[in-house]
Predict the structure.
Amino acid sequence: MKWTLKQFWKYFSKSKVLILQAIFYIFDESEEEGLKASKAAIKRNVVIEASKLTKTRKAELIQILSGISVRNQSDDYVDLKMDEAIDAVGAERVLTYIKRDKKKTALHALVLEAIHKNVLRKDGTAVYYMDDQLGFDVESAVDYFEDPNNQTLKAQILEKILSDSWTLQHDDKDMIVMYHKFGYEINGQKKQIDSKMVCVGEDQTYTAMAKTVGLPVAIAALKILNKQIIWTF
C-alpha cells in the first residue's frame, strides 16, 4: 500500500497520543535510571568520606542531621546512626555538612545539644539562654557563639552539658594516669627522672580523683595539726 501524506496524517492523528506516551515513558525510565546511578555514586562517596571522620565529628553530624545525641556511645552505635542519617536526609545534604568548617559544625552541634538538654531553650525559632536571646534561629545562635566576646558563656554551656555526660553511674569507675618527666643537669651531665602513677577508683563515691586530691590534702592537714609541718605565711 502506498501512503499519501493525507492518509499518514489521518492515521498519525489517531495514534499520536499512544506514540507520545511511549516516547515519554522510555525517556522517563532512562532519566530515572541515570538519576538513581548518580545518587548511588554520591552516597558511596559520602560513606567513604564519613568513614574518614573522627568519632567526635560523626557525633556532631548526627546531632545536626538527626537531632539525637550519641555522645559516649560505642563506635558501632555511632556508625549505625551515621548510616541512618545518610539514608534519612540524603547523601547530598550530609556531604554539605562534611565539607563545612569544622568549628562551625561543632558549634552547631553544641547549640542543638544544649537545646535538647534544656540548657538553652527555643521560643518559636529564637534561641534563648535564660531570658537573653542569643539568636533568632539556630544558625544565628551559632554565629553568636563564634563572637570572641561570647566565649565565657559558651564555656559555661559546654560545662553544663559535659557535667551530665561525665557524671559517674553507681557501678562506674574512674581512672587517673599521670606521667611526670623531670630533666636536670648536674656536674655537666644531663639526667632525667620519670614519675608514673595509675590510680583506679572503687565506685561512684570512692573515686580515683577523690583519692589523689583528698588524701594528700588530708595528710598535709594532719601534719600541720601535729606540727610536723610548720605553717608559714
